[in-house]
Specification:
By secondary structure, the chain is an all-alpha fold. Helix content is about 65%, strand content about 0%.
Length: about 290
């Protein structure tokens, strides 16, 4: 009986020891995996963005304060990331910030300028339209101007572009080119001008009305950029007329002596030819390395 009682007492301790030992062995065996998972979690390339209701609840009645914190996170996300990336969370971040603080001007202006280059024009248009109902006209600054430019250059809706350029020209401290660009947009409503001609006209108008040397130089460089893009596409079209197809690459135009060399981009972009359409893209930034 004593032996039986001893076994009865020792058995649970023995089982517990086995469990603890097995758990310890499992933990040791998977420690590297846990560390890797933890590091991956702490270094997520994209931020975690809670829902609007959750953020409003967390704000304790002060949504603009949470918007300020998210704005700081947005600047860190964009400023410390890959300069050649597309930042897929950028549009969502700016959307949330402007919903929490609808009169916070900087996120609107930033998004309207940057998002189209990140292939997020729809998000930029959403911000611009929201600003129309949340920010008074005399406080919108360049918001209407950038909004109009997206409609002109990216959406190709010339009537809306003209509308917002006109609004911008009537606001205090408006860009000097706003009134003339309203006319440029209206000129294209019933015309079939190419996208490249519209872009060239746009940047040349901005250059003529620039208020600072930096603005003038930037506009001049972009005007030259669009002229180069148009020229390359025209040469690609000539190549197709001669051969029955578009060139596979811009380098083929050099090799076949249609052009002497691939031109340098004045705005540090990489020219890339689509062999199916003959269109030249310039979304990618040049890598300085």
């Amino acid at each position: 009986m004593k032996a039986t009682r001893l076994v009865t007492w020792l058995l649970p301790f023995f089982c517990l020891a086995l469990i603890v030992g097995a758990q310890t062995g499992f933990d040791n065996a998977n420690s590297d995996l846990k560390i890797a998972v933890k590091r991956a979690y702490l270094n997520l390339p994209e931020p975690i963005i809670p829902s609007i209701p959750a953020l409003r609840a967390l704000s304790l009645g002060h949504p603009p304060l949470v918007a300020d914190l998210l704005w700081i996170q947005t600047i860190q996300y964009f400023g410390s990331g890959n300069p050649y990336g597309d930042y897929p969370s950028l549009g969502r971040l700016l959307d949330v910030i402007t919903q929490l603080d609808p009169r916070f001007e900087e996120p609107y202006e930033f998004g309207l300028v940057v998002l189209p280059f990140m292939h997020q024009t729809d998000s930029a248009i959403l911000l611009g339209e929201r600003a129309q109902t949340t920010i008074p006209a005399d406080e919108r600054g360049y918001i209407d101007f950038y909004h109009a430019s997206n409609y002109l250059l990216n959406v190709k809706d010339y009537k809306l572009a003209a509308k917002y350029y006109k609004q911008s020209s009537e606001e205090p401290n408006h860009p000097g080119a706003a009134a003339q660009l309203a006319g440029v947009a209206l000129d294209h409503v019933n015309q079939t001008s190419s996208d490249r001609d519209i872009a060239i006209n746009y940047w040349q108008t901005v250059e003529k009305n620039a208020q600072t040397d930096d603005e003038r130089e930037r506009a001049s460089n972009w005007a030259v950029e669009m002229q180069l893009v148009k020229s390359l596409e025209e040469v690609a079209q000539t190549f197709k007329q001669d051969t029955g197809r578009y060139p596979n690459t811009l380098q083929e135009l050099v090799d076949k002596r249609y052009i002497k060399a691939i031109p340098d981009s004045p705005v540090q972009r990489v020219f890339t030819l689509d062999s199916q359409t003959g269109k030249v893209s310039f979304d990618e930034l040049q890598n300085p390395n």
